[in-house]
Amino acid sequence: MSKIQRINPSSLSHLPSRIHYLHSFLAFNPSTDGPLITSLKPLLAPLLPTLLDAVYTQLLSYDITARSFLPSQAANTPSQDAGIDEKDVEALNLNHANIKHRKDFLRAYLIRLLSNRDWSPQSRFWEYLDNVGVVHTGQKQTAKKNTLRVEYVHIALLLGWLQDALVGVVMSVKEDEGDGGWTMERKIEVLRALGKFWWVQNDLFARHYCEDWDLMGEEKRTGLLERPAVKMTGLAAVGFVTGAIAVAFLLG
């Protein structure tokens, strides 16, 4: 049995230390998994318009998710097109100014993901992803953007939806298509790397919505709070188990 690794809970407040722990637990190797993810760029870049439309078609299919896009998504701009009721979620569509603004944001996010070169825990890429989490809590407003509050349940569901959509894209590629070919082995390697990434991103959302027991202070010490069954950083374990089961199924 290998020697147990010691993780100081307070270190998880430090982003590079947190990323290092997530990488270690999920077996995310920056030097191999990162390039596997960016190898998708030639395949996904031409599909981005279709993927973006699919994402927001899904989000506009439910009033509870569409409601987040009713307020203006950019500061000092009208919140709606002329003649559209600000409270009417059914008036939102893919050509609405607010949705176009959010599609631009998601496009930039995906391009940055597929173009990233530094996957180390110290990379500013993780700072960017962490800031994406902060922005969606509604706690941050800039001169260019109004606050946007999206509840965590919807974010987690969208990450799962995106993961499934990209599994479909990768698995549908013909073996002789693209640079180097897309053998089953390569598809599995790419999907495993992507799966690990989504769980890191999930944590960088969750940490801003949910308190981690190990990082709480006076309330815990004075017994005012009960210990939760699962810590937020423990979600990485769910990602690890999910990935292992998926690989076993594909190889089975």
From TrEMBL:
Keywords: Membrane, Transmembrane, Transmembrane helix
InterPro entries: Globin-sensor_dom, Globin/Proto
Signal peptide feature range: none
Lineage top rank: taxon: Eukaryota
Keyword Aminoacyl-tRNA synthetase: no
Record-annotated membrane-spanning stretches: 229-251
Gene Ontology molecular function: any one: heme binding
The keyword Transmembrane appears for this protein: yes
Short name of any one Pfam family annotated for the protein: Protoglobin
Domain Globin-sensor per the UniProt entry, residue ranges: 17-212
Protein name: Globin-sensor domain-containing protein
Organism: Endocarpon pusillum
